[in-house]
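Quick one:
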Amino acid sequence: MASETDSEENGCPHLATMNPKSHPHTRGCEECLKSGDTWVHLRLCMHCNHVGCCDNSKNKHATKHFHATKHPIMRSLEPGETWGWCYVDELGFDPLLG
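Output:
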């Protein structure tokens, strides 16, 4: 978990709730793979390892996952990208601390 100091310095208490060892358990958006649909970019839930598609994808499964679960922190799964996002506080982090 992120330290309390990291959370306070970045103004986001939700960083302390994430699992910094989160890793994807699928190679694509879980819902899109099930339905045979496509995605633009992938996002990883830093609480439960759910892989969803970004808001540029037509299904927006990463954001739908947040609304369904209230898991606030996600990160990009795109190669070379290190940023993350808190849906609750609408704050971005680059790199996402962990």
